[in-house]
Amino acid sequence: MDSAGLLQIALYLVILTALTPVLGGYMARVFGAGPAPLDRVLGPVERGLYRLCGVDPAREQHWTHYAASLLAFNLLGLLALYGLLRLQHGLPLNPADMSAVAPDLAFNTAVSFTTNTNWQAYSGEAALGYLVQMTGLTVQNFVSAATGIAVLVALIRGFARRGTRTVGNFWVDLVRGTLYLLLPLSIVLALFLVWQGVPQNFDAYVTAQTLEGGQQVIAQGPAASQIAIKQIGSNGGGFFGVNSAHPYENPTPATNLVEMLFLLALAAGLTDTFGRMVGDRRQGWAIFAAMGVMLVIGIGVATWAESATNPALIAAGVDGLGGNMEGKEVRFGVANSALWAVATTAASNGSVNAMHDSFMPLGGMVPMVNMMLGEVVFGGVGAGLYGMMIFVLLAVFIAGLMVGRTPEYLGKKIEAKEIKLAMIAALTVPFGVLGLSALTLVVPAAAASIQDAGPHGLSEVLYAYASGTGNNGSAFGGFGANTPFHNTALAVAMLFGRFLVILPVLAIAGTLAAKKTLPASAGTFPTHGPLFVGLLIGVVLIVGGLTFFPALSLGPIVEHLLMTQGISFTGAPQ
Amino acid sequence: MIHRTSEISLFDAGIAAQAATSALRKLDPRELVRNPVIFVTAVVAALTTVLFVRDLFTGGTGPDAGANLAVVGQITAWLWFTVLFANFAEAVAEGRGKAQAASLRKTKTETSARKLADVAATDWQSVPAASLRAGDLVVVEAGEVIPGDGDVVAGIATVDESAITGESAAVIRESGGDRSAVTGGTRVVSDRIVVRITVNPGESFLDRMITLVEGAKRQKTPNEIALNILLAGMTIIFLVVVVTLEAFAVYSGITLPVVFLVALLVTLIPTTIGGLLSAIGIAGMDRLVRFSVIAKSGRAVEAAGDIDTLLLDKTGTITLGNRQAAEFVPVAGINDRDLAEAALLASLADDTPEGKSIVALARQKFGFQAGSAETPGYTFVPFTAQTRMSGVDTPAGSIRKGAVDSIIRHVGEDAVPRDLRQSVERIAKAGGTPLVVARDKRVLGAIHLKDIVKPAIRERFATLRQMGIRTVMVTGDNPLTAAAIAAEAGVDDFLAEATPERKLELIRHEQAEGKLVAMCGDGSNDAPALAQADVGVAMNTGTQAAREAGNMVDLESDPTKLIEIVMIGKQLLMSRGALTTFSIANDVAKYFAIIPALFVAAYPQLGALNVMGLGSSSSAILSAIIFNALIIVALIPLALKGVSYRPAGAASLLRRNLLVYGLGGLVVPFIGIKLIDLGVNALGLV
């Protein structure tokens, strides 16, 4: 890869790091005890909403009430979205006359957007009308992101509080996250995108005459507003089918950089919010460092892999100097495609600007591994950090005993109850990814969705279920996911991956809040230095790696080894 | 750092033999199920045994056709060995605990008591104190220790209860009324009493605790429970990994023999720490016992590692038990030789250590030869609770020495020289206790009695500070004296003019801040504080109430042991953490042995993952499973002895242990599996 590519990656990392304390400080004020930063403007709206919904913002909730509110709200959102999808043929703002979405696809899509996954078994411009996109999908983009942040904020309060029964009020966290954080940022970003050329209209599709004399239908719609929140809220569901590879979603190098930054900006900022809210910013930066190192490793492997060219192509006499350009936009090239792929799977975003299916085996393995690790490298907004906290608890517990004390983190003792809950959360990923992938392979009707023979076919299955369980939503392509089996199984994976992590995390928040906080001393396991950062990375890689290494060795690893010998598989699997 | 009173060799032949049989007995599924990791190992071992036996008869044409029958047999055998080794580790630890308890029973019967047939009897029979039962009558005379808690049924005596109450003045104990109760371990100073023993000290209390040590009714400690959950969770994860791998292999056109999948599962699940976990717990209790401390529960041992604040009694722990005369301070117009001589004469009959030290200091400083308690014409006046003075009447005059206020009362307020008050204050400020000497109601001067801080105690407190533990000195002294001694000894804080209530209050205050507190005590009035403290170490010489309230008992009644108890607690937790880390890190190497071995037939390219260059697929899998079993045996000594512990801050401990057990855990199996593979191939086992 050329130095320009390296420079772009370096620039990206520098801006991301610089944004972290800015956004982190802002979010700490949004979710802290005092008045929010834009209170003068938005305060009346906030209070009006509480009055309208009959919410007493001063009333704090026990974690069980918090969880019940969250589940009820998400269930309602799921049903509403399902209704919109099933009834869209009778609804206004549908200039392309889209018909009702099939039941299994509607269920899959409704689950997908309420769980912040944005797995799309449909193609936006070919299946959905403007009303559904705006009031269905975009609304869920906002509230599912706010839900994830709310869970994290409750967990942070668990660490920060002592001897209390409550972890905050879900309705307040939801409203504040949406009103003070996601809405203003989205408006700014949407305006920027419109300026750069992204459409924001209710027009009918345009039919154009191509230079070759052919006919081309150019899709239109309120795209900018949805693209802004899909990047900010780690949703990732594109307005158009090919997502951010589409010139209308991602028209310029500037939009590419800004959209890539917002893949991770909020998640990175939340590490600092965490540090501020627990009263020790070094703790936040330590987590940031661990995530940052893993991000850089991922970017390194992916760009290295993508900079190479398939030996089979070279043997066929193709000029391989540009690296692996199959499935990539020429205007983005290797560096920006690999960077986006790593960032979008590090976050649970899932928007794409290239076809991951066409990546080199190891280049495609990096996004897959990111998702299999539970998307804890910054991760989804809120979800990434609370997922990382599960690993933090395990790391502190495994290694913390080695300093000769009951393991503790931020002054909270980590005991049997927390470990039990952390293990429940940790079990969802192997069950979802490995269990459902194996099920796919043994059910012939399900296995028929695999496009390619050989190890690559296995990668397609693993990628799909890693994406679903991890609430990522990016697709490896190739895999025919729009079947009743996969629509249902992936919906199950998404629900498990979302709520079987959220519930234990909220329970942990509750037990932690009730505990005393132990003062730190020379005998306390320090969790803000490089040693802890290294330990945390080691635990994430070893625990995650041990779980998925056997499957990966039959997928991308062996595919890579075969490729270097020029061995390929043709046709569909037998 | 930690010295041991007795040592049982790690592989005592008798214990090992017993442990071997009990390892077989522990194959009982009801026992195995208590340990999820080993239980899973046993279940899959049983499964492969069935498959092996079936293949023996069918000639190996089943789904395991890919595996050589001899290899299947060997893997099956090593799976069973894995279970047996884990059982053996636990059995060895239990055996050592039992041996330790037996030696304890022998040593604790040393003190003897004089038992009477009835109250009026005059002849007695010498019996071990520990054999006394409730209702037994014993006679105790001046100078003897009361063998157990009881009631005085005949006689009256002064009893020195300072060991329990800290009050140095002797108290009167007599039959009848509310002054009849006496406490075991206290000393009769004068006269003769007959005591009816009210408790069964040996059997009711100590033996109950020794039973606990033997591990018969061991309950899992909180950290152990949490660790077990973690290990069970990891076992479930690896079950999912291995079961789904079958589907992935089938898709890839590979048939995996069940026995190979089983081998993969057993090498992945944390059998090492799973097999050694209970041994580590038992050994922790056992280390305390070797130290003559009995913990009532493993929970207490664990809590000891978490201690943030140590409450240490000044007397006996920080300072030598007794004060010593350090200086004679005469008032104006008296020379120090006269004062020293008067002090010497007044102390000739004083048998207390303080009195003896006055005599010694006077002789050493001024070379006095004359005078002994038998000098004719001398009438000694003993210390009484009323006068709080002692002294001597000689032909040359009557000399009295005593506490400042009692001498002032003796000579009259007006006869107190001005400079006496100054020197008394100076002595108190320096952490000493002033005694005033007067002759014929004229004050001669003061004697400076000094607390002697134990040698090297300062360094020990520095060590504790490094470990993050705060030390608080508890004393009945006034704040001035306490501050001086605290500064000299280097404790972090002190509680002066301590009463049981203030002690309890201090513990509660520390606990409210989230700290864990350890203390030791022996008196009945310590019982509430002992019960409130997270680790309460009762002295064996203490009262029954104190021993019931504490969660540990120190048979040697040495309060400085608190420091070692904390270290043993830390060592226990560290051993668990170190072996867990080691066990998990081991899995990386096992993958590099087994994964290429499983798939290399279908994808020869995966041979690239065989970084160890293992001989063949069968030998790689066999070597991994052999390593997995042998590492349990190899680590038994570490589990029993505990990982080495040098007091240090958490950061440096973590760095060192991560390096040794984390990095070591990554590297060691690569070497171990390679060596075993060389052996397996050399012996032609596959």
Q: Can you describe this structure?
A:
- Chain A: Pfam families: KdpA (PF03814).
- Chain A: The system is composed of three essential subunits: KdpA, KdpB and KdpC.
- Chain A: It comes from Skermanella stibiiresistens SB22.
- The complex is a heterodimer of chains A (574) and B (686).
- Chain A is mostly helical.
- Chain A has a domain of 180 residues.
- In chain A, 64% of the residues lie in helices and 2% in strands.
- Chain A has a two-stranded antiparallel sheet with strand order 1-2. In chain A, strands 3-4 form a two-stranded antiparallel sheet.
- In chain A, helix 1 crosses helix 9, helix 7 crosses helix 8 and helix 10 packs across helix 12.
- The longest helix of chain A has 35 residues.
- The model of chain A has no long low-confidence stretch (mean pLDDT 92).
- Chain B has 686 residues and is of the alpha+beta class.
- In chain B, 52% of the residues lie in helices and 17% in strands.
- Chain B contains 23 helices and 20 strands.
- In chain B, strands 1, 2, 3, 4, 5, 6 and 7 form a 7-stranded antiparallel beta sheet that branches. Chain B has a 7-stranded mixed beta sheet with strand order 8-20-19-18-9-16-17, with helices on both faces.
- In chain B, strand 16, helix 17 and strand 17 form a beta-alpha-beta unit.
- Chain B is elongated.
- The N terminus of chain B is likely disordered.
- The interface between A and B is large, with 68 and 73 residues.
